[in-house]
Amino acid sequence: MDDYEVRRNTWEATIPIEFKLGPDIVHSVKPAFLMLKRVEYFPLVINKVLQNFTNISSTVRETEDIWLECNGQPLKWHYPIGVLYDLHSGPEQLPWSVTVRLKAFPDELVRKEEMRNLFLQNVKEADQLKHRGNIISDMKAEEHNKLFESIAQGRFDDFWSINSKLMDENIINVPIKVYFPRQIMKQLLIGLKNDENEDNTLEKVLELDKEYNVISHGVPLPLQTPLLWLARNMAYPDNFIHIIVKDK
């Protein structure tokens, strides 16, 4: 069930992003271009983004009201970067264009300093579904910190030295979030087996009424893919499988 190459490739996958400063900055500043990992979160890399802009003041770099938008919509940057890209763009639109805003922070977004607690809260929620919270609650605070810091610093081996404990085969339910067209997100409570004691697959749990593109990590997924394999190999660092369903 474990596939090291899939885990490694999803960790290393990157997206080219063009960052433009919005109308909050009155003088002209050239865009900044970065390659960012799909498994990262914008709040963890936003300082690096700002450092790539030239001719902006230190006051701008240190603002607490920074946020991001795409096509006029605030980006829910507590989602992984890969999920946001798959929701708002696609492979035909590269580099992905994102606008940096410096004023009027939207009420519906989380502050970047809240990212650590929110991430660990999501991991705990995922483990509650998988193991009734027994594994994450037995971990030490140092392990929680290492789990988060390894994402912030891009250390695959450090991350999996802790995360592997959350990936045993004694899973009760599969943590899965599905984003349907028009960005309607549903969190499903799905067991490994259906009522006929057959392995649950994407096809059996999504129950789509027509043909869609079903994507995770930018990869089209066969509907026959078992959920257990996805949970162990293609979950994002928060331990949820994030599935994007798009019109063909």
TrEMBL record:
Chain ranges of the Autophagy protein ATG5 UblB domain: 173-245
Entry superkingdom: Eukaryota
Membrane topology of the entry: Peripheral membrane protein
Keyword Membrane: yes
Ubl conjugation is among the record's keywords: yes
Intracellular or extracellular location(s): Preautophagosomal structure membrane
Keyword terms, alphabetized: Autophagy, Isopeptide bond, Membrane, Ubl conjugation
Stated role: Involved in autophagic vesicle formation.
Family recorded in the similarity comment: Belongs to the ATG5 family.
Protein name as it appears in the record: Autophagy protein 5
Source species: Bursaphelenchus okinawaensis
Lineage, uppermost ranks: Eukaryota, Metazoa, Ecdysozoa, Nematoda, Chromadorea
